[in-house]
Design goal:
This protein has 296 residues and is mainly α. The chain is built from nine helices and three strands, in the order βββααααααααα. The radius of gyration is 19 Å and the shape is globular.
């Protein structure tokens, strides 16, 4: 059984109202990240309070909370821009918000740029390893694949509801506590199956096994699950997509790691070409060469 299954992207529109719109934090006045008090677990914070997390980055409380982890409880916290060089959490991503909007002009409002940048702390090596060219190539490769999986970041959940009851493997010792039909595809890389929700949740410190709906209700959690797969899973390939781009194996190897058993080695050249075309368009937007080995 494969580690995960991609839902087919259909022409149907994502159901209206399935997920709230998460708005980015208000622009911040420039200040050194180190000037804010250190975050403390268990301490009460009021809306508007700003803290410096253990990674040196600043976060602002969007809602009052009893010291929830800013990198996990993204309903309560948002990254806060501060002028402190490499500690600045906003604006350090190699893809600007304007470029992101250019890549996804028709995206579902659920897939916010702020949600993506908030998720980056989960895997700091992503699009932040190697030369500037490699960083941009990896970001373009990731975004091209998620674009393909979601119809241009349109679909938040799997469109074929008839598949929903199929993603529960009762042979696992933890079963399917959220229900037989709760583990359908969600998010930028359509996370599915109870064992993948368990593995992703364990890695991210989020209880996705019992609350898989977080992936369709919290943009940062959705992006984190996609980054979890990209950075840690080989799928049907021999390397993670992150390793493929950082080690210059080429974009084709990211396709193999994501859906190679159904698309690579001549099985579905049209789907492969669609991914490659999107990747080439995104690298053009970022002003870098796509590199070699584009096909699988």
């Amino acid at each position: 059984m494969s580690r995960r299954r991609f839902a087919a992207v259909t022409a149907a529109l994502v159901l209206a109202g399935t997920a709230p719109v998460l708005l980015p934090a208000a622009p911040a006045a420039a200040a050194a990240c180190s000037s804010y008090p250190d975050w403390q677990a268990g301490k009460w914070y009021n809306a508007g309070d700003i803290v410096r997390y253990t990674d040196g980055r600043a976060y602002v409380a969007e809602h009052g909370n009893p010291g929830y982890d800013p990198t996990i409880s993204t309903w309560y916290w948002e990254p806060y821009a501060c002028d402190n060089g490499p500690e600045t959490p906003v604006g350090s991503f190699v893809v600007t918000e304007a470029q992101f909007n250019q890549m996804f002009p028709n995206r579902n409002p659920f897939y916010t740029y702020s949600g993506l940048t908030a998720a980056l702390s989960a895997y700091p090596g992503f699009a932040n390893t190697g030369s500037d060219t490699v960083k941009k190539q990896e970001a373009a490769a990731f975004l091209a694949n998620v674009s393909h999986e979601t119809g241009g970041l349109v679909h938040v959940v799997e469109q074929n509801t008839a598949n929903y009851p199929h993603y529960c493997d009762w042979s696992r010792p933890y079963g399917c506590p959220a229900g037989q039909d709760a583990y359908y595809g969600r998010g930028p890389i359509q996370l599915s199956w109870n064992f993948n929700y368990k593995a992703a949740g364990d890695a991210l410190g989020i209880d996705l096994l019992n609350n898989p709906w977080l992936v369709q209700n919290d943009a940062a959690v959705a992006w984190k699950t996609a980054l979890w797969y990209w950075n840690t899973q080989t799928g049907p390939g021999t390397m993670t997509p992150h390793a493929a781009m950082v080690n210059q194996a080429g974009f084709g190897q990211t396709i193999r790691s994501i859906n190679g058993s159904l698309e690579c080695d001549g099985k579905n050249p049209a789907q492969v070409q669609s991914r490659v075309d999107t990747y080439q368009r995104f690298t053009q937007i970022l002003g870098v060469s796509p590199g070699g080995n584009l096909y699988c």
